[in-house]
Amino acid sequence: MNWENQLSSILSAADGSVAKMKERLTTPGKYPKGREVDLYLMREVAGVSGLEPPCLPALTHPFSSLLPPPSSSAVQWADLAAVQSQLQIQSQAIESLTRSLCEMDRERHTQQRHVEALQDEVRRLREREAEQRLGAASPGAERRLEQWRREVGRELTSLRGHVTKATSLGNLEEGFSSKLRREELDHLRREVDTLKTQFRRQEENMFLQQSEARETRRQYERSCKTLEELTESYRNHSFELAKTVSQYSHTVQEIRHIRATVSELKDEVRSLILRQRQHTPTVTPCMAELAAISLHREFKGQREKPESDSDDFSPTPSLAEISSDDLSWLDDKDREIETHQTRQHSSSLQLSNFD
């Protein structure tokens, strides 16, 4: 029948649209033509069901401005609009099926009324037959009545078969269509619920990513400030270190100059001591003893020098050693010379008195 072909075509178109929708949902980022496929499906289903394509309202969402671009999201708002349009198309197709079922039901009722009318006519014919049976006396009339009765019985049985078949088919079609409609609506509701949950999860993930991006930006700014402070402190420390190194080199040069000066002074002192030895031969043993004492103290001071300083490996003595060890024997020498002179003077006085 025509309604069976119409129902099968609508179901095949709905299955194809659901399969394409699932394929688009499972393969994100592949929508070259937007909603052209959905519009084609709308026209196909509308042409099969004999309906006009519906005017879809624009789908608005409070978070549409916060959604990522279509190339980066897995499920787009256009897909939701397509699902809504397909739901509307399928609901309209179901409504057309229900209208066709109602028409079939009305046709069944008309057929039942027609059967009832035929039954009434059969009753009238039976009554007429009874009247004719009462009024007829010839056997030819009885044969004609019997033949006519058989024809009427066959027609009634055929009409009853058609009526029972129509009623059974109507019940089956009604049950099948209602069951199919319920299953399709449940399936579409579940898919819409899954899409809504996916959209909510994507919105939550997007908000979390935005908060993480803001926190990462704050941390980056803090790290940049810390790095700038560290760089500035490093520059200051490097400047101070260079200044300290220059001061240290200047101090080392001054110490070397002082050591050279002290060594020169020591050489001059030694030369003066040698000159005094040459000019005063009477005090030669005492001077030799004083020179030995000074050399002993000099060697002692060189052995007691610290080994930690790298600049102390030079053979020139330090200023502290000169002041503490090498210059102390000069005072002792002066005292010994004075005592020796006083002794000589006293001995000379004693000799003069003795004379």
TrEMBL record:
> Per its UniProt record, what InterPro entries does this chain match?
CCDC159/163
Segments for region (Disordered): 300-355
What are the protein's UniProt keywords? Coiled coil
- Stretches of Basic and acidic residues bias are at 330-341
Record's compositionally biased regions (Polar residues): 344-355
Please indicate if the UniProt record lists Coiled coil as a keyword: yes
Per the record, the coiled-coil ranges are: 108-135, 185-233
* Name used for this protein in its record: Uncharacterized protein
This chain's source organism reads Esox lucius (Northern pike)
Q: What is the lineage of its organism?
A: Eukaryota, Metazoa, Chordata, Craniata, Vertebrata
